[in-house]
């Protein structure tokens, strides 16, 4: 089987860390690069976290490129310190990275990588705000026809988390999200409808804690702290790990129920700013380029993550 070539655009972040471990430990994935975006914490902090996770996960041969520190048009992003802490990964032990970021901006790195690789072989996996992806496609529109697909964590068909109908990643830069969704590349939206099913249950955490690897010990810390902050901030007894769902879909899309549906981003509404407006009233038109994930096979999802951590 040919490996799935991906670029992960992220803002680590507890659940971003899980996504990076899954990508690093799965034998069917080739990580071509990691790009960072301000979101769960400031750009400086999430980039440092990405470098350190890459070292732990044996991805220190992979380029890490820092991207935008703020949205396209709006004020500085409001970070999620209430969930991820002041460092973005409070309570977790990681090695210090002994290599530096790529000199290119994340958008330029994405362009260079997509244009270098054969057409239709690179999947973009954005799991933070979509500013870097929007900048890349505006700088080099030809990447639209060369990208295999965009599998993003963000949005929701029926629900929000930062606002009643707006999810954090989309609401942080709705203009960027609008640009990305309106381009005609294939998009799979892994939104809250799906990710709220990806709960880190006590059984899952116990199984991971029994694995004797550095990656498993780190993941145990991640899930323990994520459980505490999600319980305090959101009232969840078990935390949903949103971001690895996008990586899991790339590896094995059959573990999710996905439906084609038109998706547009609201960026001017007084109460709906950042909403992903998904039309599920009838079958999608033949030329629909967007799909939404609705149902997760919870056991297969966690089995995949556990296998990846064992491999590391």
UniProtKB/TrEMBL annotation:
GO molecular function terms listed in the Swiss-Prot or TrEMBL record: hydrolase activity
Domain Inosine/uridine-preferring nucleoside hydrolase: start-end pairs: 6-303
Species of provenance: Parasutterella secunda
Coiled coil: none
Protein name: Nucleoside hydrolase
InterPro entries per record: I/U_nuclsd_hydro_CS, Inosine/uridine_hydrolase_dom, IUNH, Ribo_hydro-like
Record field: transmembrane: none
Matches recorded under PROSITE patterns: IUNH
Hydrolase listed as a keyword: yes
SUPFAM superfamilies: Nucleoside hydrolase
Record bears the keyword Hydrolase: yes
Keyword terms of this UniProt record: Glycosidase, Hydrolase
Pfam families: IU_nuc_hydro
Highest taxon of source: Bacteria
């Amino acid at each position: 089987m040919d490996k799935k070539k991906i670029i992960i655009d992220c803002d680590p972040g507890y659940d971003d860390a899980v996504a990076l471990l899954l990508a690093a430990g799965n034998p069917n994935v080739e990580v071509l690069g990691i790009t960072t975006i301000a979101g769960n914490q400031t750009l400086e902090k999430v980039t440092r976290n990405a470098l350190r996770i890459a070292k732990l996960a044996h991805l220190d041969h992979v380029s890490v490129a820092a991207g935008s520190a703020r949205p396209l048009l709006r004020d500085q992003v409001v970070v999620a310190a209430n969930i991820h802490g002041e460092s973005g990964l409070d309570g977790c032990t990681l090695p210090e990275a002994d290599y530096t970021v790529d000199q290119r901006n994340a958008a330029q790195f994405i362009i260079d990588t997509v244009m270098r690789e054969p057409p239709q072989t690179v999947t973009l996996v954005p799991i933070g705000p979509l500013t870097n992806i929007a900048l890349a496609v505006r700088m080099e529109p030809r990447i639209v026809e060369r990208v295999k697909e965009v599998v993003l964590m963000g949005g929701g068909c029926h629900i929000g988390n930062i606002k009643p109908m707006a999810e954090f990643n989309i609401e942080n830069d709705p203009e960027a999200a609008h640009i990305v969704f309106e381009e005609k590349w294939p998009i799979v939206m892994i939104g809250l409808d799906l990710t709220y099913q990806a709960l880190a249950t006590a059984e899952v955490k116990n199984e991971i804690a029994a694995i004797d690897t550095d990656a498993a010990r780190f993941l145990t810390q991640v899930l323990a702290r994520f459980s505490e902050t999600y319980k305090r901030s959101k009232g969840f007894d078990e935390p949903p790990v949103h971001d690895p769902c996008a990586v899991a879909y790339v590896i094995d899309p059959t573990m999710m129920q996905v439906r084609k549906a038109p998706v547009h981003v609201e960026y001017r509404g007084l109460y709906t700013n950042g909403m992903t407006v998904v039309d599920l009233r009838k079958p999608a038109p033949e030329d629909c380029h967007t799909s939404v994930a609705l149902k997760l096979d919870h056991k297969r999802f966690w089995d995949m993550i556990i296998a990846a951590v064992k491999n590391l």
